[in-house]
Amino acid sequence: xxxxxxxxxxxxxxxxxxxxxxxxxxxxxxxxxxxxxxxxxxxxxxxxxxxxxxxxxxxxxxxxxxxxxxxxxxxxxxxxxxxxxxxxxxxxxxxxxxxxxxxxxxxxxxxxxxxxxxxxxxxxxxxxxxxxxxxxxxxxxxxxxxxxxxxxxxxxxxxxxxxxxxxxxxxxxxxxxxxxxxxxxxxxxxxxxxxxxxxxxxxxxxxxxxxxxxxxxxxxxxxxxxxxxxxxxxxxx
Length: 237
Fold this sequence. Notes:
alpha+beta; 5 helices; globular; Structural Genomics Hypothetical 15.5 Kd Protein In mrcA-pckA Intergenic Region, Chain A; single chain; 2 domains; 8 strands
């Protein structure tokens, strides 16, 4: 069973082939992880936090952690609610974690900003569209990613069209284990390369609510170079 546990032990044991273990976890498909008990995978996730980052490749360790966070988060989101039916966004209630975020386009931290609150039970997809709405971006058809190191196209990212070896924006914000003061980025539209820097200002308990803007300053145009008389629908591929 993965090699994480000895048949006679109740506690996880770090195998000697740690790099091979991390490589497997970082790239594991859902079908591969489905063959293992969720409780065991949860113990493995705890084990990963005990590894010394000076003795294993840090990037590989972070990828393995995020892959398990994503998988376990997806399992949790599929669980039935108290009525025996899968809960929908409109049925969310009770206490959540509320994050206050300051968001601004790269290089415009003083001129154009939005302060907004989101709940940790929302997904990164929800956060993306909340940010686009906050900046009045009307074309929401482009690809996007969240870069945890604020570097576009980096491997340390969550992708909206994730392949097997990438991480999906379908994960809940709670799975990122964000901390106050942490920065990450939304990279939107791989042609125009909009980069929105996101800074976590506070985290506190609060009732669930949809994302909303609490403070706004300045304005940017999504397509500032378009001619006023030009219709983008007339463009040829």
